[in-house]
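--- STAGE predict ---
source: upstream dedup step, 1 unique chain passed
mode: sequence only
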Amino acid sequence: MPFDQENGLVYTERIMKANDHTSCFQSKRFVPFVKAPPHSQRGTRSLVDTAIITLFGNTDLLDASSLQSLPQAVIEQLWEWANDCKAVSLHVWQVFARTNHVKVHDIKGRRITCMRPACLAPVANDANMAWLVHLTIRDVAMDTDDAISIWQIPNLQAIYIQGSGTKQELVSDRILRAWASAATDSAAMSKLELMFIDGQREITPHCLQYLSQFPALKLFTAFKCGQDWIKAFGRAQSLAGWSLCIPNPVQQLIRSKTTRAEFDSGVVWPDFVENFIANAKGVASSNKPVLQLVGLDQARDGGRKARTTDFNHTIFSFQRDANSQAVAPDATAQPVAKRRKLKNDLGAANYQLMTGNV
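--- STAGE serialize ---
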């Protein structure tokens, strides 16, 4: 009996969400097909090739503890062979990343069968993952749970999210609000200083009211996002505790790094973002690598190109205004729930239990 109309009872069904990370769990124990190099079948070289095929043909048995006692040179050589054999699955990446001896700045999403933030977040809390301070996400297919799970990465100092415009947006104002709630309740993202968001139509100027919850955030930059930001601000240069940067530091970097030939032919916007973050945080000169999660479309296209002539009209950078406080959103009145007509006292009692008016 789905409905009890006489007593006003309505039975709801529970819907279980299907596992969106089926490919993650499959690739975690994915055993790649390792093709033998075209070398001689005799001699020392053939023994090395045989060892490589045997090792990376059984990566499902590889465990982080088996690498801890190995010298750094051996780990680096094994990692190089794994990349040459295209044997870097999600499981292999996690095992080598935990060793803290591998320069993983060249890891791209196209080399990994599945790498989404929800898969990355549990690994990032490992003590050996303290190097993960700069994360770039480029057109990775992820749902709301994936986007929200980014706040679980503990040491993030800079994050850059870029979309291609061909898929569903990765983040929105609601996602930033969820991050802000986690920052307030759990002190999450307490080290985040730089945030760049590109090509997300659901990022609007309203998101600025949530950014003040990140205590270390210094600069927020939006590029080709949401509604017309110029019309939203008008002549105002301050909003929700943030001030529009005049002059824009990213535009200054573009002018200083771009030659006339590059200006005429067009330059790649993501390169300027990575350059700005590297100069601001010293990533390029430090031993801390940059992890990039790159979708298949981005790996094929090699990144979207944006002409410098468009930058002056689409870049909005904001810095924290020390003299202003965040503006709380206006409270909106909730509509009064319509009370159902109940035929007897039992129905009235059930209605009170359902609505909490006991």
